[in-house]
């Protein structure tokens, strides 16, 4: 089943949420929602009851979903939304894919937590997507999540959460000095948290002393495999968030990092440089326990 959305009105629906809401009668069969280029000023929720959905944009640079809630925005109940209700795109479904789109939280710097994509799905795939924001840009709540050829920007904890997530050939862009890229909350006993494969880290002019991660929860796991890091990355690499006890429980790993930010001899003693044999286990199908998102 294919339905179309166009901000210009030359499609089945003008608003993306209306298209999503129409799927209650889809009978659980997979649905493709083709989205024509345009700026869609909407706050979107993909509900837990939704069938497998592919949001398919035509052009990442010209197909833009944008909203500007933040943690301090007042909700319908008169209370602040908080971080977890601030998302522009909110994915609660079991099976979800998005391709060729920009998803933006336009709240702006200094407004606090403001999520662009809140992903609390069973299996989620983002391909050729741009996730734009400042603090808390991407929340990875649960399940298995795959990000391929994506651009993700922010300033503080801009990738955070508990999911097992692979970032494959993505660009991570640091917007502010002394920030943090990841704040993982990997559950105890979970083998893989965040794995970055063949990614690159870039930054705005003058940005410095950005940490690769800090442990939002005690058992945070983050691995950077063959990542090219610019000079914005702090020499020590990782931060304990003022909780030294988490140095013994967090797993922060690198293999074959390169570039000006890969000052491996200066990394904190409680992080690890993986051997080639150890890094060989960081294959997508292994990380996801047999599931491979290609063609998903």
Automatic annotation (TrEMBL):
Its EC number is 3.1.1.11. It catalyses: [(1->4)-alpha-D-galacturonosyl methyl ester](n) + n H2O = [(1->4)-alpha-D-galacturonosyl](n) + n methanol + n H(+). The keyword Hydrolase applies. Residues 3-282 form the Pectinesterase catalytic domain. Keywords: Aspartyl esterase, Hydrolase. Pathway: Glycan metabolism; pectin degradation; 2-dehydro-3-deoxy-D-gluconate from pectin: step 1/5. It comes from the Bacteria. The active site is at 157. The keyword Hydrolase applies. It holds the Pfam family Pectinesterase. Belongs to the pectinesterase family. This is Pectinesterase. It comes from Cohnella hashimotonis.
